[in-house]
Amino acid sequence: METDTGNTAAEPVVAASDAPDNENNKNDRRDGLGTLNQFHDGMILHILSMLDAESLCNFALASRACYILHTDMELWRVIAVNRYADNTQFKRDWKQTALLPNDFSQPLPQETLLDTFLDPSSPRHVTGFYATLIHRRYYRSQRNLKGWDLLDKEGVPRVHAAQLSVDEFNKNFEQKHLPVVICGGTKTWAWNNWDFEAFKSQYGDKLFKMSQYHVRTRKRVRMKFSNYMKYMEEQRDHDPLYLFDKGFVKRHPEMRSMYEVPPYFQDDLLNYLDDDIRPVHRWILIGPRRSGSKFHVDPIGSSAWNALVYGKKRWALYPPGVAPLGTKPVWRDEEFESDVESLQWYLEVYPHLKDEDKPLEFIQHPGDIVFVPGGWWHAVLNITDTVSVTQNFISPSLLPAAWGEMVNTAESNLFYRHMMRFLRSQIMTYRPELAAVVAKGADVLGFDLPTPAQAWGGVPTTAPPDHSASSYPTTTTTATYVEGGFLRVVTTTTTSIPLA
């Protein structure tokens, strides 16, 4: 059970006994940190993130100021994930997870040295030390989100799926480039009645990727689902790990039958691409309270739908061209995103916004499907534990805007350049009414060079998607192209590919 906190004074981020009492102990910033005091807290914590467990413990014994800094759980999460990798087993907090072996569930005996760092029974207040960054992290980790699902008004319309036809959706929302919440859209899904224990029994020993990167390897953090469930129940992180897995269908094909692509989003032009050259487009999202997605714009001008089957999410949206205030947009993984986590933005920026500067907001409930048009900034905060499925797509009416973004991306990305050349060939063949749209950007994509059909040794082999069917056939195609500076050979065989 979470407890609320509204304190404005800095709380001691001390989860264990302080360093041994000594009248010579230095406990203020200037004397306690020495030359490190010239750096801001973010830089100090970045330096400390390079230490191993033993070095960080030794650092903590240098002074009370050093001890306080070492209690930042982000540091111990880095150490724990580095030590145990895919077999990380969470134990109440990240310090215990990092210091205790996986076959230990209880703290070490009192007489051991590690008791100094693991015993939470006697925290101490330390005067003369101020660390705004650490306090803010602590405050977020303790924040109770009770009542955050109550809004005075919602800025995005709601329409029940039973009262919204595909044509009405296209006319009133997609063609106007407006977001909408479609209620009751997951009733026929196998995942509509989500059961954590049932999912754990089937996939508990399977690895899933998180949204966060390992600070040292820059690879996604991975955890077994059984370990992740325990983490969800016990965590008090300021930025909780968020299961955000793009390869769940590839590794577990049976999951594809657990949900359905809503009829409003089935005319997806990216379905003309084989999976080998199609950009990443679908994810399963499972997150604890306080986790979420920071403000971002989906890549290559694509739109997205997000269906919630468990829990509650709070959404914030800004229209194209209106960057969220209080953030600094950065370019990462082929999309723009903010440099501020969603909970941090809500606590530190949102209260100071004028009404006219606030985003469009709404609460997503189980069964709700959210449509986010391409180019819209959006952030999501998980108010409770949540489970959802999301996909990116490009429909015919949204192609003009998306194609321009894709051309811009292709200028510096060879993979997208080759992908777009093949997509253009497919659209010219099977959707000639869109030929004028995909003719743009020839100077970037090199349309004066051999077409994909010529360069790849034959005519386009992917048949047009039949949206009345559940799959479409492909025949053997062998292609060679460059991805990230590496030569890659792709071979697809005759098969039946499910529409996604």
Summarize the structure in words:
- The chain contains 18 helices and 19 strands.
- It is an alpha+beta fold.
- The strands form six sheets. Strands 1-2-13-8-15-6-5 form a seven-stranded mixed β-sheet, with no helix packed on it. A four-stranded antiparallel β-sheet has the order 7-14-9-12, covered by helices on one side.
- β1, α9 and β2 (180-183) form a beta-alpha-beta unit.
- The model is unreliable at 1-27, 108-113 and 447-500 (pLDDT under 50).
What kind of sheet is the major sheet?
Answer: 7 strands, mixed
User: Kindly, what is the distance between the CA atoms of the first and last residues, rounded to a whole number of angstroms?
Assistant: 39 Å
The chain-level mean pLDDT equals: 80
Number of helices: 18
Helix proportion: 25-40%
Strand ordering within the main sheet:
1-2-13-8-15-6-5
Tell me the structural class.
Answer: alpha+beta
Beta-strand segment tally = 19
Instruction: Using the alpha-carbon principal axes, give the shape.
Output: globular
Q: Radius of gyration from the CA trace?
A: 25 Å
Kindly estimate the percentage of residues that lie in beta strands according to DSSP. 15-25%
